[in-house]
Design goal:
Length: about 200
């Protein structure tokens, strides 16, 4: 109200002041509730977005690692495919039994966590293993031994994600199906990254 303006006496009464004070109080109370609701909504939205973000990051990691694992498995398969004389495979690999372990797309060929002679493929002086896991290759003659010219090759890769989540069944990364590892109950080591195929002599 302007200075010097006329104020009707009833506006100065205690009753009016009380009504005004109540109105202000009510308005303030209502605003606080609104603010709390808005903050709660904002928190809910942010939490939702965070969940989506974490989900996307996990999916990204899984698909990147799956690509690495499949690449590593394919590489091992090519090694077998490139044999001119299949009789030599039994000299270089375990056939009909023990798994042939390999570091999927990594340099640690003997899986001992140490950079040994001949392992530093990219020559940077350190052991590069992009996947925290191990691959197992199983080779068995498909034709009648001893002159097998067809081999069945099964390659399974198991690894652990950054958050510790395990992909593939070989929990202890030893290439052997141990008690409690056969999650899908099919009697063999399984993984989303696996190849089973027949290879014939060229
Ligand atoms: Ca090594
Ligand atoms: Ca290296
Ligand atoms: Ca195992
Ligand atoms: Ca299995």
């Amino acid at each position: 109200m302007k200075k010097g303006a006329f104020t009707p006496p009833f506006l100065k009464s205690g009753l009016v002041r009380e009504i005004r004070a109540k109105a202000v109080k009510r308005r303030a109370g209502f605003t606080l509730v609104e603010l709390m609701v808005a903050v709660a909504l904002l928190v809910a939205v942010l939490l939702g977005l965070l969940g989506v973000f974490i989900g996307c990051a996990n999916l990204n990691e899984t698909s990147r690692n799956l690509t690495i694992a499949m690449y590593g498995a394919q590489e091992q398969l090519e090694v077998i495919r490139n044999y001119d004389d299949f009789d030599m495979i039994a000299n270089d690999f375990f056939v009909n039994g023990s798994p042939n372990l390999f570091d999927p797309a990594g340099e640690d060929d003997d899986l001992d966590g140490v950079l040994d002679a001949g392992e530093d493929d990219n020559g940077n002086g350190v052991l590069d293993s992009p996947l925290n896991g191990a691959g197992a290759m199983f080779i068995s003659p498909f034709g009648a031994p001893p002159d097998a010219d067809i081999y069945q090759v099964r390659i399974v890769v198991t690894w652990f994600q950054k958050g510790g989540r395990q992909i593939g069944e070989d929990t202890d990364l030893d290439g052997i199906l141990d008690a409690g590892e056969d999650d899908n109950n099919d009697g063999v080591l399984s993984s989303p990254a696996q190849i089973t195929t027949l290879v014939t002599e060229r």
